[in-house]
Amino acid sequence: xxxxxxxxxxxxxxxxxxxxxxxxxxxxxxxxxxxxxxxxxxxxxxxxxxxxxxxxxxxxxxxxxxxxxxxxxxxxxxxxxxxxxxxxxxxxxxxxxxxxxxxxxxxxxxxxxxxxxxxxxxxxxxxxxxxxxxxxxxxxxxxxxxxxxxxxxxxxxxxxxxxxxxxxxxxxxxxxxxxxxxxxxxxxxxxxxxxxxxxxxxxxx
Length: 205
Known about the structure:
This protein starts with a strand and ends in a 9-residue tail after the last helix. It is α/β, with parallel strands linked by helices and 205 residues long. The chain has eight helices and six strands, in the order E-H-E-E-E-H-E-H-E-H-H-H-H-H. Helix 3 (83-94) packs parallel to helix 8, helix 4 (104-111) runs parallel beside helix 7 (161-174) and helix 5 (120-128) crosses helix 7.
């Protein structure tokens, strides 16, 4: 059961203490759009596997120092779904360079070759049996007053990531693709930096 709490600007003492000694954190972000050169980073969701979940409304004029400390700590693995976009926004809008990332979307594409459906809704349903309501994703995350539906949606985007990761790793290891997954995750920070600099595909003819 998630214990989600909305907070302003950064983690308060109790949530920071609850999260800083974890070995894994589920992470997601909500933005005003998908263009980090234009659109604001509005909300950072961070959760531990025991259900502790912080929903941090971001003030870009005052980047969250405690969030940065957690996210740049290489001893804590940060689990995202589609880490490429979230890490780009965190880099460009909050000056946070994520260390030690696991991306369930990359793992899904490498492991779940029996389907072309790799969205969070699909992998959560497969590995947890839960159904996410994704209708709220396209809503105004920049509002000072988020709705209960937005808050529930934001929490659900992170609390299931641990089970999804473990289910995907079982497939990846069984199919002999662990080395390929690790190489892809190792490349991810460079892909984010290429995105930041405006490169599209460097492998095109």
